[in-house]
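Below is a filled-in request sheet from our internal design queue. Each sheet records the structural input a requester submitted and the sequence that came back. We keep these sheets so that new team members can see what a complete request looks like end to end.

REQUESTER: design group, bay 2
PRIORITY: normal
MODE: inverse folding
CHAIN LENGTH: 128
BACKBONE (tokenized):
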């Protein structure tokens, strides 16, 4: 149960980092500070639900298509978050594509880095 909570917290934090980085880099993407938390939660839930579904659907196209699952899930999650939340606004096709790539890449890097900033040590101390 603790691992699920930690994985969820890391996913939420990584997605928040990804959205912040994309908003900082792209002119056509804005984050509303007041609604940011809701936008991150919506994005994370949609991404978590959509990723396994897309993996099953894309499996028939081969292993290369499965690799694109996270990127496609990121784009769709951005679209749904933009529609459901006032915390995220993206304009322009190029910005949508760039935002998907930047959020995906930044969240991926953050998901690898965040556990090393203290969570791993905390969990090791908790085991003993």
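RETURNED SEQUENCE:
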């Amino acid at each position: 149960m603790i691992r699920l909570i930690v994985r969820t917290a890391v996913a939420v934090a990584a997605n928040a980092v990804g959205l912040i980085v994309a908003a900082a880099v792209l002119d056509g993407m804005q984050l509303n500070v007041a609604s940011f938390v809701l936008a991150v939660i919506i994005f994370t839930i949609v991404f978590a639900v959509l990723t396994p579904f897309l993996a099953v659907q894309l499996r028939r196209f081969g292993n290369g298509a499965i690799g694109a699952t996270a990127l496609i899930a990121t784009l769709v999650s951005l679209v749904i978050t933009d529609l459901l939340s006032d915390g995220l606004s993206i304009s322009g096709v190029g910005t949508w594509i760039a935002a998907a790539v930047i959020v995906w890449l930044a969240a991926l890097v953050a998901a690898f880095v965040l556990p090393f900033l203290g969570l791993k040590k905390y969990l090791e101390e908790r085991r003993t």
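SHEET NOTES:
- The first strand starts at residue 29 and ends at 31.
- Helices lie at 2-25, 36-58, 63-67, 69-84, 93-113, 119-127.
FILED BY: M.R.
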